[in-house]
Amino acid sequence: MSRKPRIELHGWDSQGQAWHGPDELAFSLAGCRNIVRKLRELRGSWHGRLRSQVPGELPLSFCGAIHDLGDAGLGLLDMEGSANGPLEVVVVIPAQRRKAVRPEFAFEFTSFLRFLEGKVSTGWEMAIHDYVQRVLHETGEEKTLVFSIETRSVVPEVHILISQQAGRLAMGMIAWMIEKDAASPARAD
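Now predict its structure.
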């Protein structure tokens, strides 16, 4: 990677049903090199275990998945046996793919989130759709966008670990998509 990407994080708080950010993130492969290595081997997607621990607490194991959607990367984070879909959904839209983002991206992403939620509706759909749509149109194409959607509240100790793992997924996706697009220049155009 010749230069580090400019990354902007936008996060959805499920409890407050509100957005926070944007926050500028520093690109780092710390803690996600293994994810990137596996993604290189598998090409289009990955799923596996991510382990975390807060000092003095029992370690937790998360189920993670990453998919390349062509114009964005999609990451899902959950715990085995948890109900109602993944705990966190992360979407990364790398700067080099911003021009290729589908016009209906915000609608399709919101529909996907609604599908994951199932029959229970909390009325958040328009807030997510409108925000994602606005950010896509108002943010310069030189920035990599990360949307991290918390789907339900958890205890603060677990929330910290989920946030760390979501960051690992995001950085892994960014590195992987930059490498893929550099190897196939036509893809990024």
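Strands lie at 6-13, 18-25, 45-52, 60-68, 73-78, 88-93, 143-150.
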